[in-house]
Amino acid sequence: MTLTTPVAHGAETGRVDLASLVDQLPAGTLLTDPASTARYSHDEAEWAPWALPLAVARPATSEQVRTIVRWCVAHEVPVVPRGAGTGLSGGANSVSGGIVVSFERMAAVTRIDPVERLAVVQPGVVNDDLRAAVAEHGLWYPPDPASSPWSTIGGNVATNAGGVCCVKYGVTGDYVLALEVVTGTGELVRVGRETAKGVAGYDLVSLLVGSEGTLGLVTEITVRLRPARPAEQTVVGFFDSLVAAGEAVAAVARAGTVPSALELLDRHCLTAVNDWKDLGIEADCEAILLARLDGPGAAGVAEAEAVLAAFEGAGATFAARSEDESEADAMFAARRLAYPALERLGPVLTEDVCVPVGRVAAMLAAVQEIARRHDVLIANIAHAGDGNLHPLIITPAGDDEARVRAQHAFDDIIVEALACGGTVTGEHGVGLLKRAGLAAELPLAVVEMHRAIRRALDPHGVLNPGKVVT
Amino acid sequence: MTLTTPVAHGAETGRVDLASLVDQLPAGTLLTDPASTARYSHDEAEWAPWALPLAVARPATSEQVRTIVRWCVAHEVPVVPRGAGTGLSGGANSVSGGIVVSFERMAAVTRIDPVERLAVVQPGVVNDDLRAAVAEHGLWYPPDPASSPWSTIGGNVATNAGGVCCVKYGVTGDYVLALEVVTGTGELVRVGRETAKGVAGYDLVSLLVGSEGTLGLVTEITVRLRPARPAEQTVVGFFDSLVAAGEAVAAVARAGTVPSALELLDRHCLTAVNDWKDLGIEADCEAILLARLDGPGAAGVAEAEAVLAAFEGAGATFAARSEDESEADAMFAARRLAYPALERLGPVLTEDVCVPVGRVAAMLAAVQEIARRHDVLIANIAHAGDGNLHPLIITPAGDDEARVRAQHAFDDIIVEALACGGTVTGEHGVGLLKRAGLAAELPLAVVEMHRAIRRALDPHGVLNPGKVVT
Fold first, then answer.
1. Distance from CA of B116 to the nearest CA of A (A)
2. A28 — alpha (psi -120 to 50), left (phi > 0) or beta?
3. What's the pTM?
4. Which residues does UniProt assign to the signal peptide (chains A, B) (predicted)?
5. CB contact at 8 A, B56 and B40
6. Are the Cβ atoms of B189 and A445 closer than 8 angstroms?
């Protein structure tokens, strides 16, 4: 069997022969027909460029991943790693002539150790599946991106994914102890440790986490776990402006209380969810804040009272501790459904800026002004407690002019976030959509440090080329 | 003024003229007479090699640090950064012909922000001084190495220092948000962010933390803070063997309780402290465990009861919750005094291995066997709750044969720790003393990744040469 396909990268002949790779892998590992590969050609960043890949590889072992990377190095073919494709920045978008490596066949929870409080997993394990598996041992894996029912730990590691409980418990990277990785030179290595502490050499684990496949392909992840935590209290606040809600977020921080969730939804999100699913949520306000508190026993109640007081002090039109668990769950379900509910209105360009907590109100005001200036609909959901805002720019399907205006709004939000002392991406990653933002955020000398590290670890330039920094 | 001094590194002439550096710095910044420079020639790793430096620089600003590094790059002169000199691995040991950069004149707490819960400090700030400064705002900087009354935040960052509360709250790196750094090419840059989250580019902050001055000179640190925490409960357990104490540590982990401290001291430490200071501590046992628990209110009491039960279940000869705060403080004072108390008996070679919590008992047994085999006195203190053991090998002053036996014991402990799935350094760093251990721990391909990154960020090879990895 000989497969030949045009190549856009590296190989000077312009053509590359896949047969020598096919021969080294079990039958069925490689997909090459466009009907099959199209499904792997991009993540959810549909505004970012992508191309059909040369092939899609679905390895079942770390050694097969190594085989693929070595072949790609030898043939100067780009490698694009892919989890569940739920990314929002284009990090998994395929490039012409490249090989997409999907980890769908590497989805085992290999080990759970309740004494060391760690788990060893393959990259294709779905986030919620890991959470369920460790819960059986009385353990908890905190990182909880909104995509947790679908996204994989490998993808979470690639983007250093955040989530709802990060405001108290940190992000994916805070839970990664060790990685098995295929390097840019085709070596299969382990970095990190299984001990609680360790400083033997550079922190290569943290360097790889969030590197979006540009410094290595992760083939196994050792994650740190926590003991199961107490039940949460919920506090809801209604506000008649986004700015008032933003001020309440700063008031919570000032009170010295650390909630286990502090989420914001605006009226557009509530309306879209109510129009789609009947969750019975009162939406007669401009924004709601949803706080959760998980201090044990009386301490949790005291935390909830402190947050309630902060909401009321910041001018909430209504605020209450939820006594009804199903009502609280409905509120958080609405937060999770906001993105798909808004997508029903048209293509959504998703922002992901993060600003200091004290600047949330100012940033929300700026987003509203930007929406007016560019005549676009911008809905807001936010991990408000850590200043991570997701303005969602929605354009009517097929309206090319609106799309141009949306792009201008997207760019202006980035400028405003940087002016607030923020970052262009809080948790989604740079991928393709935030490359210009990255260049705006980082001084050239720091970009040069990125390039130097990338050249050092990917000397052949095959690892997810074109992503993050070029 | 012209100063010429032999150079052991780089400059092919073998001589270098300091005058061009003197001219660029305020008077008094450089020390060159051996009587002055000798005090800066090594840290507390007196067993590791060191040499008198060409000069000691005491810059007062980041720009002066940049001036020094640029001069060193131009003249191929090694730069050795130094905090308080309390390091235990030789990371700050001077090299012949090099310039030691001491941060003693850069010791300001520049900013404390209670809303964003962060502080910005110069590298020369002493750990306890930072803790005191933020406590005035109701905030807490957790990392608490035993050296906290003397060691600096810059030094803590260089080694990614641990401490007593790390078992619950993590290490220095978990609290570093951003760094200002002079790079190996003499650029003054900022990496990291002031926001709670951020994934714009590679995690250069984590790469620099723990790199022991080999990837850049840190000139400012932005640290994350926590709200002040509740008062701690103390639980003490006495054990008639080190192994029994080690088993109690695993029992605490199995119980799902996370103490805010879980420290071990053996009989040698208790005796040495009692002989030196009269702290009135009962020492009729082979080992004691000191646990602290800081859950709020009733939760903290329940945690203390769980630890007490774990101690008793593992065979403690006596265990109790301390009702007397001064008694509890005396116990922790003894832990802090153990190292200087033992130093009175002779030179101490300090180990710093870290093993999985379930292997603490086995590792302590192995250390005892190694002491017997090599006929050396080994005392044990440990951050037992995270498996971080500090076997302290003590030799009579001037006994060269004992020194050789001590070195063999040191090497054997490393071998045993690796066999237990551990690491050669939990919190002290590689410096010079653990270079061979690092080579034993890391596969060659991972060492090559270290070298590639080091070459990428220190292309002229001037940053703390000879340390960590060569």
1. 6
2. left
3. 0.96
4. none
5. yes
6. yes
